[in-house]
């Protein structure tokens, strides 16, 4: 059975999300498109919470979100325990987010990357493993309650 990857976007990410859904299928994943399903304005936190909740409760190992800048989605998604949602605007940023931070949600800033760049970022993130080692200690500290 292929890995299910929930994916969601607001209206700004709608077009790029459709392309990434195609790419996920082509790569052998099972994308779970949670919306939005049109370019009509929607509230990004609703989609962020839907995807992040699936990762938080481990019904999905990782997910993908898109909005105009990526920032709004990251604010909402990172409120969920165990979620490490990273905004990536280049493949190297996506790789580092996985290697060093074990990012389990990729967030793309749809207004700032082309479709081709978005696909390259997605591929880099999917293909990169967490490095562990000293990074495991740091990820554990992210999960701690603030003092």
Give the key terms.
147 residues; alpha/beta; Ribose 5-phosphate Isomerase B, Chain: A; 6 helices; globular
What's the arrangement of secondary structure elements?
Layout: E1 4-9, H1 14-26, E2 30-33, H2 44-56, E3 63-67, H3 71-77, E4 85-87, H4 91-101, E5 105-109, H5 115-127, H6 134-143
Parallel strand pairs: 1-2, 1-3, 3-5, 4-5
Helix pairs in contact: 1-5, 2-3, 4-5
| CATH homologous superfamily descriptor | Sugar-phosphate isomerase, RpiB/LacA/LacB
Q: What distance lies between the first and last C-alpha atoms, to the nearest angstrom?
A: 42 Å
CATH architecture descriptor text: 3-Layer(aba) Sandwich
Domain module tally:
1
Can you give a write-up of this model?
- With 147 residues, this protein is α/β, with parallel strands linked by helices.
- It has a single domain (4-143), classed as 3-Layer(aba) Sandwich (Ribose 5-phosphate Isomerase B, Chain: A).
- 46% of the residues lie in helices and 16% in strands.
- It has six helices and five strands.
- It has helices spanning 14-26, 44-56, 71-77, 91-101, 115-127, 134-143; strands at residues 4-9, 30-33, 63-67, 85-87, 105-109.
- It has a five-stranded parallel beta sheet with strand order 2-1-3-5-4, sandwiched between helices.
- Helix 1 links the parallel strand 1 (4-9) and strand 2.
- The chain is globular and about 40 Å long.
- It starts with a strand and ends with a helix.
